């Protein structure tokens, strides 16, 4: 591909050429300080493992020197290609772009910040050799994210499992090794709103975990402030379950039944005891209560409609601005 002619690729065909045994897909967003250390450890590990491999680095619209560092690294690491997205599309989109570009028989996803140790790769490959389609890294040393985050994330997994009727392993992240067919399944899913943690489980296939120790972020900072995590969790639940919609039918039924019984009580008590109806307070609180509930339910409805809106636009999930590195003509720079 030449110049900045943007390739809008939602389902690009796998480029022809030799297929390496392993494609390593890494999203980079403002990770300039990590590029060299990561590649050094990764290539050292791959030299030990042997076998053909490629590294697909996705620059997710970084605003620091990440791209320059990656391009410089291409000189040293001939197995590396860089896919530069036209802006920051988010980690999920960046990973998809990498999977889409990967040619290998197996595809490994890992973070750029060295929290996913390359030294775990041999153990993952071993499990994959047994025919397991998805091998995911499971954090063996917990998350070290502090009490609040830990509790919230535990609650999220619980709620997700009960609403989506599908379990996602709590200790797993995006450190994963896919067989070609599992990766193809993953990239065939057309939705724009991609909650990867859910999609990993949704595709099925045999899945097994391999424990690893999460490293501390080696440089830079996490891009996940707690508010963003909330919206991520909400996204996950909404995109995998219609339960938040159905809940309102239940609440509506309960309230309507209660209101009916109350109305009957008023009629009976008025007839039997001839009482006045001092109803102002009841009326006011009922109106406010129901008004609030209705707004809430409309809000939930809106969340789903917003997602339908996003999906119907059928926009590509990411846009590639440029590709660097690689040995074939179209990618060479
Ligand atoms: N990342 C990305 N686009 C983004 C945010 C993050 O490609 O918009 C990449 C980031 O460069 C890193 C990985 O996703 O390689 C994980 O990000 P981070 O370390 O911030 O997440 P955490 O480890 O805190 O979950
Ligand atoms: Mg990280």
List the topology elements:
Blueprint: E1 22-28, H1 35-49, E2 53-59, H2 66-76, E3 80-85, H3 91-101, E4 106-109, H4 121-129, E5 134-139, H5 147-164, E6 172-179, H6 180-188, H7 196-202, E7 207-212, H8 226-240, H9 243-273, H10 280-312, E8 320-325
Parallel strand pairs: 1-2, 1-4, 2-3, 5-7
Antiparallel strand pairs: 3-8, 4-6, 5-6
Helix pairs in contact: 5-8
Bound molecules: uridine-5'-diphosphate (UDP) and magnesium ion.
Uridine-5'-diphosphate is lined by residues 27-29, 31, 60, 88, 90-91, 94, 111-113, 115, 217, 222-224.
The averaged pLDDT comes out at: 82
Helical content, roughly? 40-55%
What is the CATH homology-level superfamily of the largest domain?
Spore Coat Polysaccharide Biosynthesis Protein SpsA, Chain A
Distance between the termini: 9 Å
Named CATH architecture of the largest domain:
Alpha-Beta Complex
Structure ligands: uridine-5'-diphosphate, magnesium ion
**Rg:** 26 Å
- Structure summary, number of beta strands: 8
Strand percentage, roughly?
A: 15-25%
Transmembrane segments: 247-268, 280-306
Pfam family, one: Glycos_transf_2
InterPro entries: Glyco_trans_2-like (IPR001173), Glycosyltransferase_2 (IPR050256), Nucleotide-diphossugar_trans (IPR029044)
Domain Glycosyltransferase 2-like: 23-185
């Amino acid at each position: 591909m030449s110049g900045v002619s943007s390739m809008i690729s939602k389902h690009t065909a796998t480029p022809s050429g030799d297929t390496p045994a392993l494609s390593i897909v890494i999203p980079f967003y403002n990770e300039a300080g990590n590029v060299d250390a990561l590649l050094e450890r990764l290539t050292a590990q791959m030299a030990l493992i042997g076998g053909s491999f490629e590294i697909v680095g996705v620059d997710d619209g970084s605003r620091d020197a990440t791209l320059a560092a990656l391009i410089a690294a291409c000189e040293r690491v001939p197995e590396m290609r860089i896919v530069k997205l036209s802006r920051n599309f988010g980690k999920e989109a960046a990973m998809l772009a990498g999977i889409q570009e990967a040619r290998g028989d197996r595809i490994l996803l890992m973070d750029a910040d060295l929290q996913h140790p390359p030294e775990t790769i041999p153990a993952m490959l071993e499990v994959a050799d047994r025919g397991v389609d998805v091998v995911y890294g499971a954090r063996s040393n917990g998350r070290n994210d502090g009490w609040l985050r830990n509790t919230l994330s535990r609650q999220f997994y619980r709620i997700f499992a009960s609403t989506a009727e599908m379990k996602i392993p709590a200790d797993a992240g995006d450190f994963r090794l896919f067989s070609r067919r599992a990766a193809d399944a993953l990239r065939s899913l057309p939705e724009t709103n991609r909650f990867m943690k859910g999609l990993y489980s949704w595709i099925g296939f045999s899945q097994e975990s391999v424990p690893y120790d999460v490293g501390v972020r080696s440089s830079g900072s996490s891009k996940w402030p707690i508010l963003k995590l909330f919206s991520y969790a909400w996204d996950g639940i909404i995109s995998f379950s219609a339960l938040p919609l159905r809940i309102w039918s239940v609440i509506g039924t309960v309230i309507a039944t209660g209101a009916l019984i109350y109305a009957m009580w008023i009629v009976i008590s008025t007839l039997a005891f001839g009482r006045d109806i001092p109803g102002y307070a009841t009326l006011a609180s009922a109106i406010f209560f129901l008004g609030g509930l209705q707004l809430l339910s409309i809000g939930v409805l809106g969340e789903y409609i917003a997602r339908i809106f996003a999906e119907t636009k059928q926009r590509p999930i990411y846009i590639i601005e440029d590709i660097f590195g690689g040995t074939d003509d179209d990618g060479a720079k």
